[in-house]
Amino acid sequence: MAKKLLLFILLGFIFSCSSDEPPVETPLPELELTNVSYGTGDKQQLDIYLPAGRNLAETPLILYIHGGGWIEGSKDEFLPFKSGMGILFPGYAYASMNYSLFNLATGDNPFPTQENDVISAIEFVESMSSEWDLEGGLVLVGASAGGHLALLHAYKHADIGNVKSVVAFFPPTELSELFTYSDPTAYLLSELLEGTPQSNPDLYNESSPISHITPSSVPTIFFHGDLDNVVPLSQSSLLEEALQDNGVTYQFQVVPGQGHGFTADTYPALLTMAAQFIKDNP
C-alpha cells in the first residue's frame, strides 16, 4: 500500500512539473485559399497563398492586381508568376484579386468602383490578419490597368493597408493625358469616367495616380516597354517626373523591344529587379 501511495505521489510530481513547460509550437503549414470573397459582388474575390512558418511579426503581403483595361481580365493573370514567388520573395504571403469590371455595353461599374474594390479587398485582408498570421506591411503589384490601381492606392490611400512599396508594369498614370492618345482610348475613358477631361476634370484628376504623389509617397519601381502602343511610354515618363519633383525613391526601367505585355522570358529579370528594390527599401 505504501509503495502504491509513493508511486501516485511521484507521478503527480512528474505531471505537475511537466505542465509548467511552455507548449511546443508547430510551425504553421503552407496554405492556399482560392475564391475568398471580400465583398458581396460576384467579382469581389481573391486568392491568397500563405507561406509555411508565417507569424504575425514577419509576414508581409504582396497583392497583385490584374490588367485588362478595367473591362476584362481576372486574378488568374498572377498564376504564371506564382511558382517563382517563394524564391524571389521568401517569407512573403501573396494574393491576387478580382475587381468589378466596367461594362461598356451597360455602363455598370464606372470608376471609381475599381478603386473602391481595391480598398475593400485590402481592408478585408487586414481584418483577417490574425487568423491568417499576416503582418509586416503590404506591397502592391499591378500590370496595365492593375498597375494604375496599384499606384493609385499606394499614393492616395497608403494609410489603408500599411503600404510599403509599389511595383507597376506599363501603367496608366495621368488619365487626362492618356485621353488624347487615341480615339479608342478616349472612348473607353469617356465611358469609364462618365465624361471627358473637360466635362469631368475632377474625376480625371482624382483617378490619376500622379495627382496624389507627395514627398512622403512610398518607394516605387515600374517598367514600360518602348514599343507599347496601348499605354504609351510617356505615361511612365510623366510618373518619373512627378516622383523626381517630390523626391520619392523610385526606379524606372524602360524595356527595349517590348510592347504592352512583356514576353514570358522578360519577366524573371524584371521581378528579380523588383525584389531587390523592395529589399533595399523596406
Written account of the structure:
- The longest helix has 17 residues, at 2-18.
- Helices cover 37% and strands 17% of the residues.
- It has one domain (28-280): Alpha/Beta hydrolase fold, catalytic domain (Rossmann fold, 3-Layer(aba) Sandwich), CATH 3.40.50.1820.
- It has helices spanning 2-18, 79-88, 113-127, 129-132, 145-156, 175-179, 183-192, 201-206, 234-245, 267-280; strands spanning 31-37, 45-50, 61-65, 93-97, 138-143, 163-169, 220-225, 250-255.
- Helix 3 packs across helix 5.
- It is of the alpha/beta class and 282 residues long.
- The protein contains ten helices and eight strands.
- The model is unreliable at 1-24 (pLDDT under 50).
- Pfam families: BD-FAE (PF20434).
- Keywords: Hydrolase, Signal.
Provide the descriptors you would attach to this structure in a database record:
hydrolase, 37% helix, disordered N terminus, eight-stranded mixed sheet, Rossmann fold, single chain
Topology:
Blueprint: H1 2-18, E1 31-37, E2 45-50, E3 61-65, H2 79-88, E4 93-97, H3 113-127, H4 129-132, E5 138-143, H5 145-156, E6 163-169, H6 175-179, H7 183-192, H8 201-206, E7 220-225, H9 234-245, E8 250-255, H10 267-280
Parallel strand pairs: 3-4, 3-5, 5-6, 6-7, 7-8
Antiparallel strand pairs: 1-2, 2-4
Helix pairs in contact: 3-5
Structure summary:
This protein is an alpha/beta fold. The protein has helices spanning 2-18, 79-88, 113-127, 129-132, 145-156, 175-179, 183-192, 201-206, 234-245, 267-280; strands spanning 31-37, 45-50, 61-65, 93-97, 138-143, 163-169, 220-225, 250-255.
